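Researcher: Let's do a round of design. I'm pasting the structure tokens now; please hold your answer until I've finished.
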């Protein structure tokens, strides 16, 4: 007898159970895939964050003074973000620095992070884990600006007036909120790659051609070198002189006895062919004049009288003078007014350096600490130096802070170190100097070619008259003034610097 249709429905066949089993398997598989893929995606995002942070940190280190530590820094940062090389199947690989993609002048670092992510539901399908990899490439990028006027409120924070031609192959930033923070007056050309002004407007009077038009109302920029450490140095410890003096006048050669520190000082004159100061200490005040042909100073301390502002060395002789390589401390101003060539070496110049007459002075590479007195170049004197950095600070109450002054100095050329902590820094003014104090002053027909950063964060940079050009220059100052008949060209060719990067740079992700 045939069963009714109700009877057929009341007894399901085995095929339905099979179909349900298959459907449930697929359902659980899809659910498991969604859960495990979500877990992999979350882990990969965390890995990418770690790779990005590690690459940026490595790139920052590569640009700093401890560039050899870039790989260690990258590994440490990756570990801080939860991915430690060699732990729990994690592999963090830091590549050798190479040219950045699309920016061959920059150096980049690639960081790769690989991990094995365990699965949960997919294990029923035979997948116990999934391998995940991420990578990031980071390197240096030059700041678009190279001119920063940091004064936050005053008018004429950046002033260019007179008959001028100002051209910069980079941008300018004026932090002042004043409506005349940027002040242009006269007849000339003002050209940058872009100028940002924090104020709601700026002053533009006269026949001035601007390219491009400054943008107002921008956010002020902070000091881009605020983290740069200031040089450390020891102040003078004056030696107790013996009673008497040392005097030499004649012809032939003379060697001053080492460690001659006499209360009456040291005086050299006459027509000597050669004068030598062996390594040692000398004072109180070394005075040299006459028709001396050649003179050599060796490392040591040269001092004026303790408790006075007397010169440590005063040279008016027309002698070819060399300060041999080594460590020097000058306790009192170094005064040069002769008409021949002089070669100075790095050291602490307490009381500063004064150069005048027709002296031609070459600075050996290194750091010159101007502890009070500043650097003054006047007359027909010229100064030249490669790989030099001048740190302008105070020498205490006896030798207060003074500006770097170029009054004349036409034909001079100065360039900063190309590597190290002070890569690209030519002038560095003490940050503790009162805001608005004169920092750099150029007057007269002074044409100086420089390669380096002029860093005067609390002091002013003033050009009064003709100014110079550069391969690259950045000016970071409290206020910046170009007044008079000035012709200024600021370049941005950083190819001479380590890694080809600007001293004002940061790191960015390329991939």
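Researcher: That's everything. Go ahead.
Model: Designed sequence:
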């Amino acid at each position: 007898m045939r069963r009714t249709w109700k009877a057929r429905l009341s007894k399901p066949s085995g095929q339905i159970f099979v179909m349900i089993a298959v459907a449930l398997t697929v359902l659980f598989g899809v659910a498991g895939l969604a859960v495990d893929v979500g877990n992999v995606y979350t882990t990969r995002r965390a890995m990418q964050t770690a790779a990005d942070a590690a690459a940026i940190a490595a790139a920052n280190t590569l640009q700093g003074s401890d560039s050899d530590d870039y790989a260690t820094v990258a590994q440490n940062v990756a570990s801080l973000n939860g991915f430690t090389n060699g732990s729990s199947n994690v592999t963090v690989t830091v590549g050798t620095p190479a040219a950045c993609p699309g920016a061959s002048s920059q150096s980049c670092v690639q960081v790769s992070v690989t991990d094995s992510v365990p699965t949960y539901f997919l294990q029923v399908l035979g997948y116990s884990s999934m391998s995940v990899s991420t990578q990031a490439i980071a390197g240096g990028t030059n700041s678009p600006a190279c001119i920063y006027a940091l004064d936050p409120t005053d008018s004429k924070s950046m002033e260019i007036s007179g008959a001028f031609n100002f051209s910069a192959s980079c941008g300018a930033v004026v932090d002042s909120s004043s409506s005349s923070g940027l002040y242009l007056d006269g007849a000339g050309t003002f050209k940058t790659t872009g100028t940002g002004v924090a104020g709601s407007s700026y002053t533009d009077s006269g026949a001035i051609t601007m390219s491009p038009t400054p943008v107002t109302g921008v956010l002020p920029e902070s000091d881009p070198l605020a983290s740069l450490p200031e040089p450390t140095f020891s102040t003078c410890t004056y030696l107790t002189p013996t009673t008497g003096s040392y005097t030499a006048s004649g012809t032939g050669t003379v060697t001053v006895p080492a460690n001659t520190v006499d209360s009456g000082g040291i005086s050299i004159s006459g027509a000597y062919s050669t004068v030598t100061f062996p390594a040692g200490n000398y004072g109180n005040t070394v005075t040299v004049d006459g028709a001396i042909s050649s003179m050599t100073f060796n490392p040591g301390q040269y001092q004026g009288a303790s408790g006075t502002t007397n010169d440590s060395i005063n040279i008016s002789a027309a002698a070819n003078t060399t300060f041999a390589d080594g460590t020097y401390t000058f306790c009192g101003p170094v005064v040069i007014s002769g008409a021949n060539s002089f070669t100075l070496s790095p050291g602490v110049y307490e009381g500063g350096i004064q150069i005048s007459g027709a002296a031609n002075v070459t600075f050996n590479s290194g750091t010159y600490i101007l502890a009070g007195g500043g650097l003054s170049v006047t007359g027909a004197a010229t100064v030249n130096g490669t790989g030099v950095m001048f740190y302008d600070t105070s020498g205490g109450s006896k030798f207060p802070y003074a500006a770097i002054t170029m009054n004349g100095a036409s034909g001079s050329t100065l360039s900063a170190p190309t590597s190290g902590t002070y890569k690209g820094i030519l002038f560095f003014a003490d940050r503790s100097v009162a805001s608005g104090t004169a920092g750099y002053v150029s007057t007269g027909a002074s044409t100086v070619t420089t390669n380096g950063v002029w860093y005067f964060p609390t002091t002013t940079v003033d050009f009064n008259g003709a100014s110079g050009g550069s391969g690259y220059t950045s000016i970071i100052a409290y206020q910046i003034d170009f007044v008079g008949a000035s012709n200024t060209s600021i370049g941005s060719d950083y190819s001479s610097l380590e890694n080809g990067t600007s001293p004002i740079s940061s790191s960015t992700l390329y991939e």
